[in-house]
Amino acid sequence: MLESETLEKAHALLERAPVFDGHNDLPYVIRADKKARGDVIAYDLTRVHEDGDTDIPRLRQGKVGAQFWAAFQPTNAPHPARTALELIDTILRIEAAHPDVFLPAREAADYERAHLAGKIASFIVVEGGVGLENALAPLRVWYAAGARMLIPCHNEALDWVDSATDAPRNGGFNAFGRAVIGECNRLGMIVDGAHVSHDGIRRLLDVSEAPILLSHSNAYSLCDHPRNAPDDVLKRLKGNGGVVMGTFVPGFSSQPVRDWMKRRRDAWGKMPASVDPAALHADAAAEKQHAPRATLSDVVDHIVYLVETAGLDHVGVGSDFFGGAQPLGLENVGCFPALFAELFRRGFSERDLEKISARNVLRVMRKVEEVGAELRLAREPAVGRIEDYPGA
Ligand SMILES: [Zn+2]
Question: What is the distance, to the nearest Å, from the Cα of residue 360 to the centroid of all Cα atoms in its chain?
Answer without folding.
Answer: 15
